[in-house]
C-alpha cells in the first residue's frame, strides 16, 4: 500500500502540475500579475489535498500570529519538496529566490518570470549577488515577502545543519524583519525518496527577528531558533501513535 499510495501521489503531483500550468496559462499570461497569482496558491492547496487523501499526509500550522505585515524575509528549514509549495498560501505576495536554470524549464520557467520570482546565477557570484539584492530590495519595497531556504538545498531530517552566510547579507542589506520557519516535513516526504509516509507534518512560524542586529549575531540567532524548534518538532513526531520509519535513523536530542 505504501508503494501504491506513493506512486499515485507522485503521478497526481507531477501530472496535476503540468495540467494546471497548461490549462491556466491563458489566464495567467493575459492578466496582471496580481490577478494571475491566485493560480499559485490554488496549485499549492491542490497538492496538499492530494497528499492528504492519497498519501495520508496531513499537516498542522502553528504560529500564524507571528507573521508580520508588509515586506520581510521568510527563512525556512528545508527538508522536503513539501515546504516549497506549502508555504505559499500563508503570504499575500511572496517571491522565491531560485536558481536561474529553473527559468529555462518550458512553461514552469515562464510562470516564474510572470510571477517575478528572483533568479540567481550561481556561476557568477559577485554579479549574481548584486542583481539578487537589487531585485530583493524592489520586492520588499513593494511589500512582498521573500521566501528563502538558508541552507540552500534540502537536508535530511535530523542531519547537521548547513546554513549559508548569504542570508545575513540579505538581512543586512534589506533592513527588514526575518520570519524563521521550523518544520519536520522530512520525516514524511524525505529528500531523494520515492516513498511518502503517512503522518502529520508540523510547520511552525516562529517569532520574527527584527532588523538591525549585527550580521553574525543575527546568523547565530536564526540558526539556533530554527534548529531548536525543528528538533522539537521531530521529537514530537516520535511520540505519535504510528511514528514515521524515518525516525529510526535519527538519534533523540
Which key phrases capture this entry?
seven-stranded mixed beta sheet, globular, alpha/beta, 253 residues, 15% strand
Fold and architecture overview:
The protein is α/β, with parallel strands linked by helices. It has helices at 2-30, 33-36, 39-55, 82-86, 108-114, 125-141, 166-174, 215-238; strands at 57-62, 72-76, 94-99, 118-120, 145-148, 178-183, 199-205. It has a seven-stranded mixed sheet. Helix 5 (108-114) links the parallel strand 3 and strand 4 (118-120). Helix 1 (2-30) packs antiparallel against helix 3 and helix 7 packs across helix 8. The model has no long low-confidence stretch (mean pLDDT 93).
Helices and strands in order, then pairings?
Layout: H1 2-30, H2 33-36, H3 39-55, E1 57-62, E2 72-76, H4 82-86, E3 94-99, H5 108-114, E4 118-120, H6 125-141, E5 145-148, H7 166-174, E6 178-183, E7 199-205, H8 215-238
Parallel strand pairs: 1-7, 2-5, 2-6, 3-4, 3-5
Antiparallel strand pairs: 6-7
- Count of discrete alpha- or pi-helical segments spanning 4 or more residues: 8
Gyration radius over CA: 18 Å
% residues in beta strands: 5-15%
Q: How is the largest sheet built, in terms of strand order? A: 1-7-6-2-5-3-4
Order of helices and strands: HHHEEHEHEHEHEEH
Q: Given the C-alpha coordinates, what overall shape results? A: globular
- Terminal-residue CA separation: 32 Å
Number of strands: 7
Amino acid at each position: 500500500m505504501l508503494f501504491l499510495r506513493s506512486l499515485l501521489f507522485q503521478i497526481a503531483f507531477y501530472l496535476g502540475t503540468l495540467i494546471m500550468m497548461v490549462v491556466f496559462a491563458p489566464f495567467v499570461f493575459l492578466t496582471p500579475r496580481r490577478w494571475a497569482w491566485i493560480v499559485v496558491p490554488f496549485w499549492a492547496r491542490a497538492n496538499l489535498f492530494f497528499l492528504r487523501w492519497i498519501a495520508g499526509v496531513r499537516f498542522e500550522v502553528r504560529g500564524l500570529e507571528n507573521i508580520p505585515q508588509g515586506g520581510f524575509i521568510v527563512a525556512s528549514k528545508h527538508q522536503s519538496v513539501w515546504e516549497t509549495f506549502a508555504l505559499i498560501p500563508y503570504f499575500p505576495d511572496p517571491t522565491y529566490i531560485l536558481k536561474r536554470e529553473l527559468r529555462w524549464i518550458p512553461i514552469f520557467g515562464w510562470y516564474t518570470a510572470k510571477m517575478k520570482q528572483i533568479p540567481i546565477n550561481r556561476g557568477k557570484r559577485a554579479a549574481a549577488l548584486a542583481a539578487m539584492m537589487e531585485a530583493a530590495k524592489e520586492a520588499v519595497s513593494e511589500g512582498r515577502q521573500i521566501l528563502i531556504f538558508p541552507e540552500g538545498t534540502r537536508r535530511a531530517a535530523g542531519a547537521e545543519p548547513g546554513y549559508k552566510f548569504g542570508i545575513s547579507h540579505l538581512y543586512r542589506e534589506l533592513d527588514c524583519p526575518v520570519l524563521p520557519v521550523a518544520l519536520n516535513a522530512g520525516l514524511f516526504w524525505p529528500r531523494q525518496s520515492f516513498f511518502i509516509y503517512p503522518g502529520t507534518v508540523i510547520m511552525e512560524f516562529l517569532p520574527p527577528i527584527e532588523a538591525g542586529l549585527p550580521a553574525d549575531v543575527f546568523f547565530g540567532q536564526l540558526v539556533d531558533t530554527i534548529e531548536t524548534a525543528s528538533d522539537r518538532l521531530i521529537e514530537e513526531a516520535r511520540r505519535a501513535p504510528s511514528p514515521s520509519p524515518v525516525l529510526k535513523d535519527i538519534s533523540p536530542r
